[in-house]
Design a protein that fits this description.
Blueprint: H1 14-35, H2 39-42, H3 50-74, H4 76-93, H5 103-124, H6 127-149, H7 169-183, H8 189-206, H9 209-233, H10 244-264, H11 266-280, H12 282-293, H13 344-366, H14 369-372, H15 374-390, H16 399-405, H17 410-418, H18 424-435, H19 443-455, H20 463-480, H21 491-516, E1 520-524, E2 531-533, E3 536-540, E4 550-552, E5 565-568, E6 571-572, E7 574-575, E8 590-595, E9 598-601, E10 616-624, H22 626-656
Parallel strand pairs: 7-8
Antiparallel strand pairs: 1-10, 2-3, 3-9, 4-10, 5-6, 5-10, 8-9
Length: about 650
């Protein structure tokens, strides 16, 4: 990386060489296991072995902590580079102690810890290679998203929207944007345009409108600043077309994949149509939601002091008073009883009562607002979050309650959690993303961070999202302040071992999932999603525990002898089978499978299951999905390519030094 002063290791400093190798391996493992979203699939490896799981994770976090402390103790330039970050991190941790520490607070602490440790580890090894590994992981996530899109029953929890191993399409899109913004400058020039095209088209496949808007700003702001700087300096505006031939080929290939998905995945077509329809109908949805939640504030009455003795009974009443001797706050009807201004304490109580009522109304509306329009739902979540912040007190409500309110905004989340001081935490992250920028190209990370924070509350609660930001900040620090030592001959193998270890952990988790998952997938049907058809009610089957790795068998072809059932409050319904060419129907107390992911049934007494308050439990056989094998093959191929690429890259860096 330009601006880094290289100095050779001597035999007098064996500890520095050992620490550099260990730091490289741990940093690579952390990036692969977290930024690739492998960790949730690694956890089933510890099923039924909780003590072993604690031992492994304590060893992992403890090892990262010990190595980070050792690096700080032996590398003065690293200490000076991260001093400001360390002070800010310590201040960000203090408010956690003001509230009970639950699972959300622990996630926040782990996220900060891993982000800070990743910066220390990358500064102790080879920042350029760390950033290129992060870019490689981002590219892998994009490819997995496209694999997800090509299968109707993929990993995503929103049918028709690509999500990959992140499961949530919006979270997957945020991870792609942050990963690209943090690491794109470390990608080789001939591949940089292809990398950006891959990420951009994958963002389209996620159908995450908020992230697409943030991505547009991430590209536009640095471009405008760069043009402005060239105009001010009188330089001729030039566009570097290097590598765009490959990028065009990549774009055609990805657009072709989207065309295939539109043809083979009906859910993708539906989701795309709903996404565009949601944009067109957002104004109407916001108006309807506003009318539904706006309630008149409760009238507050207080007694009026008696008129002064001697006052004329026929004297006109003062403005705002009435013979009833009561007062009404602003917003009440003109016919309501009015009086002189209320005491400040009464106004405060009235305002608090109004806010609480508004929050309750918002909560009721939000139960199904997302089905009407997800954009208006986000607006209501944000409004409820702001009301909760106003009513939360000086020190806030804590992260547990703040996360439960789901404000879809990181700034508001921490304001709810920690009160007025909470605003400073996300503002500090944004400031660091901007203040270490060297030129217009580095502004992309800061703009992306702002865009994601404005539309998501998960950024500082999810290591997979925060890690790219930390690496991007660390890369800028390395270029400005840190003298990075020459990699030792064994350091390439440390990066390779860390990468392979991360992939091996994912593989072990997948094998454990295949072994412990029962052959039957059971779950309760969602009564509110049922609709009438062919004499009964149809609804989608509950998702399997690990969608994408498993799929439902072709249920219409399941022989009657194979186990499957549908219970109504414990009472078994009778299964009927239909030819694959027939249009199935059911009678009272029967059920059948119309297609791979849906069941058609009729209650035992012909009542409406959407309102009869009964529970319906279904069990269907599952099998390993073809997507599982394709995914494992893709990840293995990626790991081999990454190991092959990392080793010569580090060797060339040593030779050039």
């Amino acid at each position: 990386m330009s601006g880094i002063a290289h100095s050779e290791r001597s035999s007098a400093r064996p500890l520095a060489g050992i620490l550099g190798c260990i730091a490289a391996g741990l940093c690579a493992f952390t990036i692969v296991i977290y930024q690739s979203w492998f960790m949730p699939y690694f956890l089933p490896f510890f099923t039924g072995r909780d003590e072993f799981a604690r031992l492994v994770f304590h060893a992992l976090y403890g090892g990262v902590l010990i190595v980070s402390i050792a690096v700080l103790a032996t590398r003065r330039e690293v200490r000076s580079a991260i001093l400001l970050l360390a002070i800010a991190a310590a201040m960000a941790v203090v408010p956690v102690a003001l509230h009970p520490v639950g699972i959300v607070a622990k996630c926040y602490l782990i996220t900060l810890f891993l982000g800070g440790a990743a910066i220390v580890l990358m500064l102790a090894s080879a920042p350029v290679i760390v950033l290129r590994l992060s870019a490689s992981v981002t590219a892998l996530n994009a490819v997995v998203c496209f694999l997800d899109l090509l299968f109707a029953n993929g990993f995503t929890n929103t049918p028709g929207r690509a999500a990959g191993l992140a499961i949530n399409p919006n979270v997957a899109a945020a991870g792609l944007l942050l990963g690209a913004a943090a690491s794109y400058r470390a990608v080789a020039q001939k591949w940089r345009a292809s990398f950006l095209v891959l990420v951009a088209i994958t963002l389209l496949a996620t159908l995450s409108r908020s992230t697409l808007l943030a991505a547009f700003a991430t590209v536009a702001v640095p471009s405008v600043v760069r043009v402005w700087q060239q105009f001010r300096s009188g330089r001729r505006f030039q566009i570097d077309l290097g590598g765009w031939g490959r990028a065009v080929a990549v774009a055609f290939g990805l657009l072709g994949a989207i065309g295939i998905a539109l043809t083979t995945n009906a859910s993708f077509r539906i989701a795309m149509g709903e996404s565009f329809a949601g944009i067109l109908s957002v104004s109407t949805a916001l108006d309807e939601a506003s009318k539904a939640v706006d309630r008149p504030p409760p009238a507050v009455t207080v007694p009026i002091a008696a008129s002064p003795e001697g006052a004329s009974a026929n004297q006109p009443a003062s403005p705002g008073t009435s013979s009833a001797g009561t007062a009404t706050p602003p917003g009440a009807s003109a016919d309501a009883v009015t009086s002189s201004p209320l005491p400040s304490g009464t106004w405060s109580a009235a305002s608090q009562s109004t806010n609480v009522a508004k929050m309750q109304a918002l909560g009721e509306r939000l139960t199904d607002e997302g089905k009407r329009n997800s954009i208006s739902a986000r607006a209501l979540f944000l409004e409820r979050g702001l009301l909760a912040y106003r009513e939360g007190g000086f020190f806030g409500r804590g992260l547990e309650e703040a996360q439960a309110l789901a404000p879809h905004n990181t700034f508001v989340l921490f304001a709810i959690a920690f009160g007025h001081l909470g605003w400073l935490i996300p503002i500090a992250i944004v400031s660091f993303a901007f203040c270490f920028a060297r030129n217009a190209d580095d502004l992309a990370l800061g703009v992306a961070v702002v865009g994601v924070m404005l539309t998501s509350h998960d950024l500082l609660l999810t290591p997979s999202l925060f890690l790219p930001i930390a690496l991007g900040i660390g890369g800028m620090l390395a270029a400005r302040k840190v003298a990075v030592e020459m990699p030792s001959p064994t350091e390439p193998w440390s990066f390779a071992c860390g990468t392979v270890a991360g992939v091996a952990a994912f593989g072990a988790g997948c094998i454990a999932i295949l072994l412990v998952t029962p052959p039957l997938s059971t779950g309760r049907l969602q009564n509110e999603t049922m609709f009438t058809v062919r004499g009964g009610y149809e609804t989608l089957l509950p998702r399997s525990q690990f969608p994408g790795l498993f799929q439902f068998d072709d249920l219409s072809d399941i022989p009657p002898s194979q186990v499957s059932y549908l219970h109504e409050n414990g009472t078994s319904l009778h299964r009927v089978d239909w030819s694959s060419h027939a249009w199935p129907a059911v009678r009272q107390g029967e059920y059948t499978f119309r297609r791979r992911a849906a069941v058609l049934f009729a209650p035992t007494d012909s009542s409406d299951p959407r309102s009869n308050e009964r529970t319906y439990e279904v069990a269907v056989p599952v099998s390993v999905s073809a997507l599982c094998f394709i995914l494992l093959g893709t990840i293995i191929a990626w790991s081999v390519a990454t190991v092959v690429a990392v080793t010569p890259l580090t060797s060339r860096s040593r030779a050039s030094g």
